[in-house]
Amino acid sequence: MGHGKETPRQKMIGMMYLVLTALLAMNVSKDVLDAFVIVDKGLVQTTENFAAKNEGIYGTFDLAYSQNPEKVGDWKTRADEVQSKTDALYEFLNECKVEIVSVKDEDAIVDGVVDLDLVKVKDDNNTPGEIMITKGKGAELKVMIEDYRHYLEEMISHDSAFAPLMEAIQGNLDTHDHPAEKAGEQAHPWESYNFEHLPLAGVVTQLSAIQANVRNVESDVLGYLLQQVDAKDFKVNVIDAVVLAEHSNVFKGQEYRAQVFLAAYDSTKIPEVVLESGEILPVEFGKGIFTATSSSEGTKTWGGVLRLDNDGEIITRKFESTYTVSAANAVISATKMNVLYRGVDNPVSVSASGVPETAVRPRITAGTMNRVSAGNYIVKCGPKEITSTVSVYADLDGKQSMMGSMLFRVENLPDPTATIAKRVGGKDEIPTGFRKGSGSMALRDLLGLNGLVAIADDFLFDVQYEVTEFKVNVLGSGGVNLIELSEGKDFTSKQKNIFRTMRPGQRVTIEDIRAIGPDGVVRDVNVISIKII
Predict the structure, then answer these.
(1) What is the pTM of this model?
(2) What are the tens digits of pLDDT across the range 138-148?
(3) pLDDT, tens digit (0-9, with 9 covering 90-100), for 253-270
(4) Cys-Cys crosslink for 118: which of 63, 108, 181, 219, Cβ 3.0 to 4.6 Å?
(5) Inter-residue contact 523 to 467 (CB < 8 Å)
(6) Three-state SS for 89?
(7) What is the mean pLDDT of each run of 10 residues along the chain (533 residues)?
């Protein structure tokens, strides 16, 4: 059996297996053999639960990768490798079970899997030895387990913080020879100790136990990889220099003004912005302020380097931007971005150089456009438009003249990201340091939460989403999943009662989360995984 840290359930199954083996050595009745069926069923159920939970984590990787391939790509590749190697080892274990049982009892093989309850020769202690020892299946299995263990050990950081994970891997995948029971005797080889001179029922159960350990280790390693996705974040998903100009075109004699900053910057860290000329820009609220005045027309290029001290690591980003000095023309700019979204008010500013605001006549090809103040309009898009063009006309000399136009893309609102929240002063707040989608916390902190919120990350509009339902899923004692539904955004009393049964090391999966936005569309959003520490 495995060494190192084990769950209470694993310890119980291991103890049952040892007791049953001891009873068999004493030639106890056939009823004892049937007891192995109970243990095997428990192991199979535990393995299925681990497999289901692992599929959820793989789904989390897929979602994260679709949203940010550059950031998640390397860790998703490792997760895919873990899945491939785990499945190969798991299937070899199943192959061993099937080969042992099919020698004398093919009817006990159902859909390629052994049903120990149907085996008629549970006391056969010859066939397992022939397959696992004589034919070398046991030695081959030992090599596969050791290769798998070494692969995982090389993947895990040797930081002391991950020592418990390393111990769990080594314990669950232990292949050391069993020490001699008496002085002068030789140690029992691992494969001989586990598979030789033991009844078929016991060997099949032992192989099921190894399968459960393999899925357990897979779950722990996936949790580690998911944690590493955000381990070196600068509190944001993307770190890059951004240039934001108040106007992309200016006229002769007009000042050009732009801001240089890190997207979603940390206000506690002040960057240094240096132009190619060596000039250091003044910084306001984390943003370098660049100004220039030009007396000639044409395209102007400028740039430099932005530096930031991130806890001793100097982050450096080059940037370059251009602006155009031109003669007067119509200027149309979305105050948010060059995309219009369905279901929300899209603010758009419209102006025409040298033309009074009262003489400007904007038009839109799809949707509605209503004036709210001088030069500012609200655009609303219908459910079917793909693009919409805003054109600017001006009343000049008694007739309307075309001043310019701009094509906008019309898109749906982005899906929100669900995360846990605590209500403070009537407002939902996300726990400090908790990563959306996964994280860890003490049980008391989990019990202090109120429920879930859905947030549109890095979206320029202040869009409010409401969580309409979700399920809490916890693997409880006995290998039974405890599942409770909330038909709202708050945890129910039954869900919190499930939380109270949890112990450090367990995970709660919050799944089947649905949220609705101002466009009336109900969306299925991400899974949340929380480990109790």
Answers:
(1) 0.45
(2) 999 999 999 99
(3) 446 677 775 666 666 678
(4) 108
(5) no
(6) helix
(7) 50 55 51 84 92 93 91 93 95 96 93 93 92 94 96 88 90 89 78 91 94 95 88 52 59 60 65 90 85 75 87 81 61 65 89 80 93 92 87 84 88 90 88 77 93 86 92 90 96 96 94 92 93 92
* Euclidean distance between CA atoms 260 and 244, whole angstroms: 6
Decide if 241-325 and 330-411 have a common fold: yes
Contact 496, 487 (CB under 8 A): no
Nearest CA to 5 out of 220, 193, 313 is that of: 220
Structure tokens at 392: 């600017």
Q: Under DSSP, is residue 441 helix (H, G, I), strand (E, B) or coil?
A: strand
CA distances from 365 to 77, 369, 380, 390 (A): 45, 10, 12, 7
CATH, range 241-325: 2.60.40.10
Does domain 330-411 sit in CATH 2.60.40?
yes
With left for phi above 0 and alpha for psi between -120 and 50, is residue 2 left, alpha or beta? beta
Question: How many whole angstroms separate alpha carbon 209 and alpha carbon 14?
Answer: 8
Give the residue extent of every domain in the chain.
8-229, 241-325, 330-411, 417-532
